[in-house]
């Protein structure tokens, strides 16, 4: 009988769905600059739609996390690994909010926002953040656009670092320590 304690199906589904969408969005975000002009608009619009979807899923995930305890870690894990994995998990939670929010803020300060309304996957109208879009002075708005763009890029760098640690930790537990680590987050 398999005794591995697991996350709930809802937690597992949200984990892999958010992971997949974030990876796709990193690829789209990084690729946007080097694509031919005729592809850029669709790529960035898709990136925005996926990002807002991630924000909604992140909210569900956080609510689920607050109401459900994760399965206990194997007793054999040393305390430094427990602490480090806890820190990385908190950082990942922060980033699944910070990336879409900073992207949305960046986009809301875009001078083209008014003439290019957002619609999720071309279907569902989606607002810009009013207080940012309504900044009257063009110079102030442009500097906000740049600032929020920098935040978005830096949250991206933090994501690469946190993701690398997360992946290394999971692989170490699975293949070096030989615990059923991946099964905890499996269906
Ligand atoms: C899952 C959430 C998101 C992730 C992981 C993500 C990630 C990224 C990355 C890695 C880049 C490239 C940064 C670089 O050049 O180093 C980028 C660019 C960008 N993102 Fe996001 N993003 C997310 C959500 C959003 C949202 C919700 C919006 C807007 C509503 C947005 C708007 C943009 C824009 C406008 C760019 C610049 C694209 C360009 O002109 O090259 N992002 N994003």
Automatic annotation (TrEMBL):
Cytochrome b561 bacterial/Ni-hydrogenase domain residues: 6-185
Gene Ontology terms: cellular component: plasma membrane
GO process annotations (BP): respiratory electron transport chain
Record GO terms (molecular function): electron transfer activity; heme binding; metal ion binding
InterPro entries: Cyt_b561_bac/Ni-Hgenase, Cytochrome_b561_oxidase, Di-haem_cyt_TM
Subcellular locations according to the entry: Cell membrane
The keyword Heme is annotated on this UniProt entry: yes
Predominant subcellular localization, coarse grouping: membrane
Pfam families membership: Ni_hydr_CYTB (PF01292)
Residues passing through the membrane, by range: 12-32, 44-64, 84-105, 151-171
Family the entry assigns: Belongs to the cytochrome b561 family.
Name of the protein in question: Cytochrome b
Organism: Solimonas marina
Top-level taxonomy: Bacteria, Pseudomonadati, Pseudomonadota, Gammaproteobacteria, Nevskiales
